[in-house]
Amino acid sequence: MTATPPPIVDVSSVAVEIDGHPVLWDITFAVPAGKFLGIIGPNGAGKTTLLRVLLGLIAPTRGSVRVLHRSPRELGRGAHQIGYVPQRLDFDPRFPVSVRDVVMMGRVCCLGLFRFPRREDWRKVDESIQRVGLSGQERRRLGELSGGEQQRAFVARALCAETKLLLLDEATTGLDLPAQHELYALLQRLRRELGLTVIAVSHDLLALGVHADNLICINGTTHIHGNPQMVLQSDQLREAYRCEFDFLSHEVHEGEGPSA
Amino acid sequence: MTELLSYGFMQRALVAGVLVGLLCGVLGFFVVLKRMSFIGVGISHSAFGGIAIGVLCGVEPLIAAAIFATLVAWGIGWLSRAGRLHEDTSIGILFSSAMALGVALISLSRTYQVDLFGYLFGNILSVSTGDLWLLGGLSLVVLSTVALLFKELLFLSFDEEVARASGLPVSALWYLLLTCLALAVVAAIRVVGIVLVEALLVIPAAIGYQVAGGYRMMIGLSVLSAVTAAVAGLLISYFLNVAAGATIVLTLTVLFGLTLARKRPATHRAGAAG
Buried b vs exposed e over A30-54: b needs ≥16 C-beta within 10 Å? Predict the structure, then answer.
C-alpha cells in the first residue's frame, strides 16, 4: 500500500485579522498535487485575502498554512514555484513592454539579483509563450493585444519559472465568453502537460463548476467544500450568497436565504 | 563656435550637461512609468532645506542637500507605504516643510553670502572642476545601480503586486529607487536649479514614452533628448544671452511638442474583452 503524498496546499484553521477586524476565520482545506480548486464566495468574502495568505503577502493571525510543504513566509526564493495571475489588470496599456519582456519578468526571481538573463532564460520565455498559444506575438507590445491574449501572456509569465502551483484571482474578469472558455481550456491543458496544481478565485460559478475538481465556498469562514455538483446544489451555497440560484436557467433569484 | 568651446567654463558646462542629461534621462524612465512625477517635485524642493543646513553648518551645500533629500525621499516613501497618508499628501507636507526649514535657516544665517538664485534656478556656467568630479561620481554610482538591478526595477514599475508575490524585495528596491532619484535631483540642481529640475526628470522620458514602442527605445530616446536639450540649450542661451537652465527646459518643451504630433498605435485597455 503506497502512502498518500502530502498535499501541495494545506490550510488548517486559519484566521486573518486586518486592522483588528476579522476577515477570515476557521478556514480549512487541502489541495493534492495536480488538482484544480475553485474558490467562490460573494463580494467581500475574503477570497483575495485567502490567496494573499497562500502567497505569503499576509500572515494569518491563527492556524497553519503550508504551501509546497513550507510556510509561505519561508518560501523566499522558492516563491518562484508559485505562479500568480492577479485580479486587477489596471496596468498602463501604453507601458512599453513586449509580450517577451513581460514573460521574462516571471524569470526574474529565478535569476537572482545582479544577474542578467542568459540564452537559457530566453528559451524558457519562448517556451512559455508557445505553451499559451501566443507564438508569433512575442515582439508585440502587450497593450496591442486583446484582453484574452493579455491574460494568456500573464499566464505565460506565471509559468515561466519552475512553476508547480498556479494561483489565479478572477482571471476571467472582463473577458468575453469565448476568451473565458479559451482560458479555462488552456488551464486544463497546462494541468495535463505540466502536472500543475491550480487554485482559481472566480465569480463565475458555472465555469468553475465545469472545470474545477473541487470547490470551496467561503464568506469569512468555510461554508462548504467538496465536489462542484455537491457544492453548487447545496443550501450552504445559498446561505453564503444569501440568495437562490437556478443554474439551469442561469437566473439568480434574490431572496432571503436560510439564516446565517 | 570654436572659440566658445575653448573656454574652460563652457567645456565644464557641456560635460555637466551631458552627465546630468544621461542621469535624468535614465531615472526619468522610472519616474514616468511608475508615475512618480510628484515625488520628483517633492524631493527637488526639499533639497533646499539641505542646502540651507549645509550653508549654516559650513558643509558643501550639495552634499548636505544629497543627504537631506535622500532622508526626505525615504520619509515620503515610508509615510505613503505605511498607509498612513496618501502619497500626494505626504509629499505636500514634507516638501513644503523642508522648503520652509530652508528659508528659516537661511534667514538666520548672518554670514550668508551664498548664490541662492543659482541653487533655485541653476547656474551651469559656474560648474567647477570639483563639481564635475562630484557629478561624475554620483552618475557612476546611480547608473551602475540601475543597470545592475534594471530587470527588478522594471518588474516593480510594471506590476508591484506580482513582483512582491514572486519573492522580490520590493520595499528595499523602492527605497533604493528613491535614493537614486534624490541623488539625480541633487546632481541636476547645478544645471537647471531646484525649481526646474523636475523638467529634466519628466520631459525627456515623456518624449520617449510618446514615441517608443519598447522600453529600450524609450530609455534611449529619453537620454538622447535630455543630452541634446542640455547641449543645445546651453549654446542657445549663450548666443541669446538668456538663462541657461530655463533655455534647456524650453528646448525640451519644444522637443516634446514635436512628439505630440506623432500618432501612436492603438492599445487595448487592460481587461477589455476581445
Answer: bbbebbbbbbbbeeebbbbbbbbbb
Q: Is the pLDDT of residue B214 over 90?
A: yes
Report which residue type is found at A259.
S
CB contact under 8 A, A101 and B218: no
Beta-carbon count within 10 A of B59 CB: 14
Average pLDDT (B197-220) is: 95
Residue A128, all three cell numbers? 512559455
Looking at residue B228, which CATH number applies to its domain? 1.10.3470.10
Kindly indicate the confidence band of residue B19, based on its pLDDT and cuts at 50, 70 and 90.
very high
Interface list for A 95-124 with B (CB within 8 A): 95-98, 101-102, 104-106, 108-109, 111, 113-114, 116-117
Q: pTM for this one?
A: 0.89
Domain of B255? 21-272
- Rounded mean pLDDT of chain A? 87
- Tally of domains in chain B: 1
Residue B250 half-sphere exposure toward CB, CA atoms < 13 A: 11
Long-range contacts of A73-80, Cβ-Cβ distance < 8 Å, separation of 24 or more: A75/B167, A76/B167, A77/A109, A77/A112, A77/B167, A78/B167, A79/A55, A79/A109, A79/B165, A79/B166, A79/B167, A80/A106, A80/A109, A80/A110, A80/A161, A80/A162, A80/A163, A80/B166, A80/B167
Residue B11 lies in a domain: no
Average pLDDT over residues B41-70: 91
In a domain? residue B116: yes
Q: Please check whether residue B176 lies inside any domain of the structure.
A: yes
User: Does the CB of B168 have a partner CB in chain A at under 8 Å?
Assistant: yes
pLDDT digits (tens, 9 = 90+) for A100-135: 999 999 999 888 888 889 999 999 999 999 999 999
In contact, B267 and B260? CB cutoff 8 Å: no
